[in-house]
Amino acid sequence: MKGFVFHGPGQASWQDVPDPDLKEPTDAIVKVGVVTVCGTDLHILKGDVPEVRPGTVLGHEAVGEVVETGSDVRGVRPGDRVLVSCITSCGRCRFCREGRYGLCAGGGGWNLGHRCDGTQAEYVRVPFADLSLHPLSSTVRSEDAVLLADIFPTAYEVGVLNGRVRPGDTVAVVGAGPIGLAAVATAGLFSPERIIAVDPAPARVEAARKLGADAVCDAPEVSAQLVADLTGGLGADVVIEAVGRPDSFELCTRMIRPGGRLANIGVHGRPVMLHLEDLWAKDVTITTGLVDTFSTPTLLRMAAAGRLPTGQLVTHTFPLTAVQEAYDVFSQAAETGALKIVLGGEHHTDVTTVPVA
To answer: Where are the transmembrane segments (predicted)?
Structure first.
């Protein structure tokens, strides 16, 4: 088969790789139908995630068909169409029993495209298949479901739930890429007074507006003043960092009100200055974390009911074999307008741009 293989910072290629085999009785083999490219994949290519070894097939999000299962797998069977979660979980360790699957101490956590071969290939081995694969309703398109493998549960859990968004809150989202846009959409589920989206790309803040942002700013240098103006000088109740850069994190700390909550989603590849000389007396809560995907079943039900704007985030589609071109388009989002890219599926062209509506 073929897969998209990481060879070191700045180097990856679509090439022949060995077919995956069952290694544990809890494994399943999935024929990949639809995948997507994540901002975390770009961080890996930049060298920001050094534990990813050269030779690893990238990707941690997919929809596909189960073709083989280990002897201990009970929840799925060959022929099932499934969502491949970005997180695998043993289900037995202390953290899994608490629903904190991203911290799994039993061999799970973020494995695919990280510690083992991932989903950007024709087939993928999924560890702990019973808890890591989600059978899909026929009412959910594969191209929509794949966005629930990572970005929607990440934005919802690590951003909105960790930030404890409540009715009447002012929520500021710094970064209107796919994760930030999913945070805008899911924060709206809690009826905040206003959502403010900040991103230097005008197309992205316009997308945020269409997904529910009440105010937008494409000039980050004045965004803290905008938040202050809209809140009577207090600052935002909740600030969600969805970029993963030192300057964006520091901007978030300037936006937060005393007693507020800062939820960091972004993947940081460099040290960040934490200005405790300014924050120590403000009673600010800062949260970090890897997604646990405990919310995936709930989000799938919402998607099936038409309650999540998944398809609105997809701007480009490619055949799976054009994964290198897809990476190029996604990495140059400021020029291409790319939000979320989908590869594979039944309805694709080499490049399709779909406006967010």
So the answer is: none
Q: Is 182 helix (H, G, I), strand (E, B) or coil?
A: helix
As a whole number, mean pLDDT of residues 60-88 equals: 97
How far is the C-alpha of 91 from the C-alpha of 278, rounded, in Å?
A: 41
| Cα–Cα distance list, 349 to 67, 261, 288, 326 (Å) | 27, 42, 38, 12
Stretch 183-188: mean pLDDT, rounded?
Answer: 98
Give the start-to-end residue ranges of the domains of the chain.
2-150+293-344, 155-287
User: Could you tell me the fold of the domain covering 155-287?
Assistant: Rossmann fold (3.40.50)
Q: Measured between alpha carbons, how far is 29 from 38 in angstroms, rounded to an integer?
A: 22
Which pLDDT value is given to residue 356? 37
Tell me if the pTM is above 0.90: yes
pLDDT at residue 350, as a whole number: 43
Helix locations, 38-111, DSSP H: 39-46, 94-97
pLDDT at 347: 46
The fourth-level CATH superfamily of domain 2-150+293-344 is: Medium-chain alcohol dehydrogenases, catalytic domain (3.90.180.10)
Report d(CA 211, CA 76) in Å as an integer.
34
Residue 60: what are its φ and ψ, rounded to 5°? -140, 20
> Which secondary structure element, helix H or strand E, spans residue 320, and what is its range?
none
